[in-house]
Write a structure and sequence with these properties.
Elements: H1 4-20, H2 24-34, H3 46-60, H4 65-82, E1 89-91, H5 92-96, E2 105-111, H6 114-123, E3 129-134, E4 140-150, E5 155-165, H7 169-172, E6 184-185, H8 186-192
Parallel strand pairs: 2-5
Antiparallel strand pairs: 1-2, 1-6, 3-4, 4-5
Protein name: Nucleotidyltransferase
Organism: Comamonas sediminis
Length: about 200
């Protein structure tokens, strides 16, 4: 149910996501605090927050965001190509179109052996840091994080490879409740970069 409080939290969180590059979960929690609402206030779902982020981008970033998004997608393609052997899929804001220059790039890899992805980065001479995050079903997966310079934006962007089992790929491609694909293959991302006039 979309209450007035939900909309207020979503709109406040959307500003933090766009202006500060906050991840969605922390942005919702900070919005509750900033609005002086009780700590147990129900948080808006991600669909509502995404709608608020898109609205904010349209109102305040319409002249800059499309260019920034394109630069991030081009950088994502570069890093997906480097790890093409591990079935890379782009996820998050860079895939769904809500990214700005403050957004990180999230690439999900699906491979038989998680260590083989690390070995491939070492072979490419890429420096990375390893951490753990929660996967699709709450399981722990490795995140291999890189800082990559993005020439069009003239700044370093965080690129994170999230390493999943090959078996996870089948479930990962199911559309969400709105029928949208939650992640995109290398080919799908390349298609997004083709100008609409072609």
């Amino acid at each position: 149910m979309k209450t007035d409080a939900s909309w207020e939290i979503a709109n406040t969180a959307a500003r933090m996501v766009v202006e500060e590059g906050l991840e969605w979960g922390p942005a919702k929690k900070r919005a509750v605090k900033q609005l002086g609402l009780p700590g147990r206030t129900a948080l808006p779902d991600n669909d509502l927050l995404e709608a608020a982020v898109r609205e904010y981008l349209e109102l305040f970033c319409g002249d800059t965001q499309p260019t920034e998004l394109r630069a991030l997608r081009e950088l994502a393609v570069l890093w997906m190509e480097r790890m093409e052997a591990f079935r890379p899929y782009l996820a998050g804001a860079v895939w769904n179109g809500t990214a700005t220059r403050l957004s990180d790039i999230y690439i999900q890899l699906f491979c038989d052996d998680s260590k083989s992805a690390e070995i491939a980065l070492i072979d490419h001479g890429v420096r990375y840091e390893v951490s753990s995050i929660n996967g699709f079903h709450g399981e722990t997966v490795d995140a291999l994080s890189i800082s990559s310079f993005c020439k069009p934006l003239n700044e370093n962007i965080g690129v994170h490879y999230l390493v999943y089992d090959l078996d996870d790929l089948r479930g990962a491609l199911k559309p969400d409740a709105q029928g949208r694909t939650p992640r995109g293959s290398l080919e799908a991302v390349r298609r997004l970069l083709i100008p609409a006039t072609e």
